[in-house]
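Annex B. Sample input.
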Amino acid sequence: MISNEEIYDMGFKIGRTKVLSVSKLLQLNTACRMQDRNAIMGILLPAYISIGVNFPEELFENLENIEFMLAYQLGLTAGNAKENATFSGFISLADASERYNIPQATLLSAIKRGAFEDGEDCKKIGRDWIFKVSALEEKYNDKE
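Annex B, continued. Sample output.
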């Protein structure tokens, strides 16, 4: 039997490739909680194929093992975060609204008007928006 550390490392190596977006990582988490083997394979298999790595037999055999998949997902997330500090310096729409005392609708309108550069000053993750703190400070002239 493969150890939890080996499972974590397996996930970490794939996470470092950034082959799975944050959205896909969240979908994988949901699929694992529901023990939906087809959904898990639908997320992981194309990822492995796209980077030219053979799908690990141990992973295939343990897709419904909650402890195994938790260790694997932790590795995936840690590897992705190490290589891709996506959220460093960003805050959520709700936090931005509260911090700068600006209604969320006003911030969303500012995005639509082009006041914030999508992908640079702000990013949409699923249905939620995050803002780069430095862009908010520049626009609203407020310091942390």
